[in-house]
Design a protein that fits this description.
By secondary structure, this protein is an all-beta fold. It has one helix and 37 strands. It starts with a helix and ends with a strand.
Length: about 475
């Protein structure tokens, strides 16, 4: 009866073609100070938010998957250009931002954008002192353990205007000299994996991409990502998929017309940026705000994109849209609206993902039209209701590998002596619609075994492997690639 109810619940929930199970929105700021340019990052149970409170950059955190929040802490020294970002690696959180100011002590420059860096060694509870990095606005950051890469765009010579790379191999205490990436490109976005640096930016009304395999000393010939008929592309975002998958999303006005509304565009590389697949238009109705926010993250084979749309009409059909792919960008699920406003604009859409939760933040004047915008967050889960990755008492361990998998999957389980007979053990695999696609029964008496299952008939996507012993079940998420 329990199993029947569980499967019925899963089937009903997924019958709506919904990937995410959204919780109600939550307001995380409670004052009348206007906020702009919010950023979110998630790692394990920690969720971090940066927001600009009428120029000072502020930081708040959650250590319980976004259920409760700390008080805000000031991040910037004087004020900021509301262009701040962060990243977490293990228990260390790294922050970078830019300030438009007269310069740090001893530097007599006026009205110049400077980049700064801070770190926290305790998951954001306390912050170290700020470190001056040099000129730069805006900035992008990526990190792997104690290796950090920051990409500021320098506007005032010297050096020549354009994006530069600076890096640190000791967690941000010492930094390299500025290394030029490419002349005159703005809106930087950088990503690092397996010794390869990936850069995307805007130049001459085009989205460009380049890569470096020697820590930024030399860069490949830029690839023009946008098609020849592009009009005004902007907001390039890079995300890393499984194996050598690399994704880029941006907005473009070539279909919207009138410079009022954009479309969300997407391309994919399967060889770490050496070649790129065809351009995909993800919004056939041009429902993306021109110049608005666009953000993209990925986990396993799943890609998440969020953006804002503030349309015409009274009341205006203001929306925050969410789009996901469970197949590495090959196919996309139906677009979802995660927030809406009756005549007031929603802005600064930003998304983060960690474990089984996805987080979307935005700024919103709700509930008063014309009121200073405040910060809201909404949390969703892409694990079906009732399914959790847990180990019951009778099963000491379950491992699923390789993960992601292709043609075969191996499931290794170890049993404890709790009175259950091995003939009570069932192996089942469900797809994201809650449908059972593979069923196998173990009748032998081996308490420690590896089971190999042929999965050639399964399409690519997300699956849940179920080990059932008596009245207890353990679920493990697994991803199949093409």
């Amino acid at each position: 009866m329990i199993i029947i109810l569980l499967l019925a619940l899963i089937s009903f929930s997924f019958a709506q073609d919904t990937l995410i199970y959204w919780e109600p929105e939550q307001r995380v700021t409670y004052d009348s100070i206007g906020q702009v340019d919010c950023r979110v990052w998630a790692c394990d149970s920690f969720v971090h938010i940066l927001v600009n409170y009428d120029f000072p950059a502020m930081y708040l955190r959650s250590s319980d998957y976004g259920q409760t929040w700390s008080d805000t802490m000031r991040l910037s020294i004087m004020h900021s250009n509301h262009l701040q970002t962060l990243i977490q690696q293990d228990s260390v959180v790294y922050f970078v931002w830019s300030e438009q100011r007269a310069g740090p002590p001893g530097i007599a420059q006026v009205d110049t954008s400077y980049a700064f860096f801070r770190r926290s060694n305790d998951c954001g509870m306390t912050l170290d002192s700020a470190i001056f990095l040099g000129k730069g606005c805006p900035v992008s950051i990526d990190a792997k353990k104690e290796t950090l890469f920051v990409d500021p765009v320098v506007w005032d010579p010297p050096p020549v205007w354009g994006p530069y790379l600076i890096y640190s191999f000791d967690g941000g205490f010492n930094w390299s000299a500025y290394l030029p990436i490419i002349d005159s490109a703005g809106q930087p976005n950088i990503a690092y994996r397996n010794g390869i640096l990936h850069f995307a930016g805007c130049r001459d009304y085009k989205i460009i991409y380049t890569r470096s395999t020697n820590i930024g000393n030399t860069w490949s010939t830029p690839t023009i990502i946008t098609a020849p008929n592009t009009v005004l592309p902007k907001k390039p975002n890079l995300a890393l998929g499984p194996n050598q998958d690399l994704y880029i999303a941006w907005t473009d006005n070539k279909f919207g017309g009138g410079m009022q509304f954009d479309d969300v565009m997407f391309r994919k590389s399967t060889d770490d940026g050496l070649t790129w697949g065809p351009e995909q238009r993800l919004t056939p109705d041009s429902k993306c705000q021109a110049g608005g926010a666009l953000d993209m993250v990925s986990q396993d084979s799943i890609i998440f994109i969020v953006w804002d749309y503030n349309g015409t009409g009274v009341p205006a059909p203001c929306s925050l849209f969410f789009l996901a792919s469970t197949a590495c960008g090959e196919t996309w699920r139906l677009r979802e609206g995660v927030a809406g406003g009756e005549g007031y604009a929603l802005n600064d859409a930003n998304v983060a993902v960690a474990q089984n939760f996805v987080y979307v933040v935005w700024r919103d004047p709700h509930p008063l039209i014309g009121a200073p915008p405040e910060l809201y967050i909404r949390r969703g889960s892409f694990t079906p209701p009732g399914i959790e990755e847990r180990t019951p008492v009778s099963v000491s361990s379950v491992n699923v590998y390789p993960n992601p998998f292709r043609e075969k999957i191996q499931i290794r389980y170890m049993m404890q002596d709790t009175g259950y007979k091995i003939r009570d053990l069932f192996i089942k695999i469900f797809n994201v619609l809650g449908k059972e696609v593979i069923y196998e029964v173990k009748w032998n008496k081996v308490k420690d075994e590896t089971v190999k299952i042929d999965t050639k008939s399964l399409p690519s996507g997300v699956y849940f492997v179920c080990i059932e012993v008596g009245n207890e079940r353990v679920f493990k998420k697994a991803v199949k690639l093409k």
